[in-house]
């Protein structure tokens, strides 16, 4: 029963891997060129890597120490990349409406079919994330002269868990929304990027009064970006996540985001059971 | 296995797509469901397959309501084949092999060869006829006991249409209950032992094909000028229907075609012919609502 789902996820993973490797090669080449030019004394290159002193006053700028990199850095960058992959994978139940007549005439319940999609996609999301972390570690490690530059920090495990949970929630919300529509999955997926980020921003917008503000806050409850940090900071060699819209402790935030992901997938499944092909 | 449809009604908003349809497809028989475009055939099929929820009525397969396990024995070929464009033909067969316990790999290979399918080709590279051929090969590869075929020969050339006809007859001979629709009336006439004609969602004619045909004849007269039905002919008890089309007059005769021929000879036609009633004649008679201009003078 998992064959189509597997083939689809494999195809998406392959494309994602090719793009990632290509981007990594460009990054390694660019950094190598910059280092060569810097060592040659070119005034046009000023390597930002070498200036990290833990200044976090701008909040959105991540600075790397020259020879120590918290492992949370690749973990966060990979999280952003994972969102792109998740969008490519999501709406899988709905993207090929014309095959629904074939999907729904298989000897399996619609719930089971939906679960097989979710299961394979969830595994693909985890794999894509692991691959992205690996590629970024390779790029940074090769660029900075070895992997000894990395050190494990306190927030690494929770950050990785949150990155995956947010991707799951993003996937689930897109499945749920698109399952109520007879088409336009691509539109939902494409608009989710600006939509979620704008919504997170509007949650802090108070000029239109308390009711509108409360409405935006309520809408942000189902916004995966509202649970994700947009940056990481390094304070005196100790890394910490930047603020997110809902600044809950990790121990609450990760299970909550996962619960939203599961609920969204359940809504998509219920909706799917009602679909007329 | 058999299919039983009782008082099926399906509405989309104010429009009634299928109106109180009842019919049965017995084990080892072929039921041809005919109707003009939009008559409700595809909607009826979707209801049978659980792809659309009926507003009223019941559908049973072998006396039981449809369940996921039923699809282990049931094949469906939709009017527009539901294939994954990005997958190859081989991957489709692999999908069917993993999905259906009854999938017959040897039969699939045989059907692939019959339809001359290139298993390495992606579906998006196939022609419309090849799409249909893949869908048919998959449908027959599970050796189904119930088949629902919606325009199964759509896009196929006459050679493969004959192959499809043979496959349908062969499957029925093996005990399958087959419900199918086709605009190729000749194909339905050859394969079906029972037919139903849908028009505007309603079953307007249904029964055993041979019984429906009975001894009815069509007397066709061609005149030098526009044909006009003689007085009293439309009221003749032997006449089922008269169709006038330019210089042509067709008289559908229930019995005693010879007497009608004699009556028409008096009008001095250019030519006069007598045919056995065909399924096409029945179909056109059943769905004719006057909109085609062929229904003048029906008795």
Q: Describe the sheet with the most strands of chain B.
A: 6 strands, mixed
Biggest β-sheet: strands ordered side by side in the sheet of chain A: 1-2
Alpha-carbon distance between the termini of chain B?
A: 41 Å
Report how far the terminal alpha carbons of chain A are from each other.
Answer: 19 Å
Unreliable parts of chain A: 44-65
Q: Rg of chain A from C-alpha positions?
A: 21 Å
Helical residues, percent of chain B: 25-40%
Can you tell me the CATH topology of the largest domain in chain B? Rossmann fold
CATH class of the largest domain in chain B: Alpha Beta
* Biggest interface and residues each: A-B, 22 and 27 residues
CATH architecture of the largest domain in chain B: 3-Layer(aba) Sandwich
- Total E-strand runs of chain B: 14
On the 0 to 100 scale, the average pLDDT of chain A is 80
Return the domain count of chain B: 2
- CATH superfamily (homologous) name of the largest domain in chain B: P-loop containing nucleotide triphosphate hydrolases
* N-to-C SSE string of chain B, H for helix and E for strand: EEEHEEEHHHEHEHEEHEEEHEH
Task: Report the structural category of chain B.
Answer: alpha/beta
How would you classify the helix and strand content of chain A by structural class? mainly alpha
Tally of separate domains of chain A: 1
Give an account of the 3D structure.
The complex is a heterodimer of chains A (277) and B (299). Chain A is 62% helix and 4% strand. With 277 residues, chain A is mainly α. In chain A, the strands form two sheets. In chain A, strands 1-2 form a two-stranded parallel ribbon. The longest helix of chain A has 37 residues, at 3-39. Residues 44-65 of chain A have low confidence and may be disordered. By secondary structure, chain B is an alpha/beta fold. Chain B contains nine helices and 14 strands. Chain B has a six-stranded mixed beta sheet with strand order 6-7-8-3-9-10, sandwiched between helices. In chain B, a hairpin with a 2-residue loop joins strand 1 and strand 2. In chain B, helix 3 (105-114) runs antiparallel to helix 4. Classes of the chains: A mainly alpha (277), B alpha/beta (299). At the A-B interface, helix 1 and helix 3 of A face helix 2 of B.
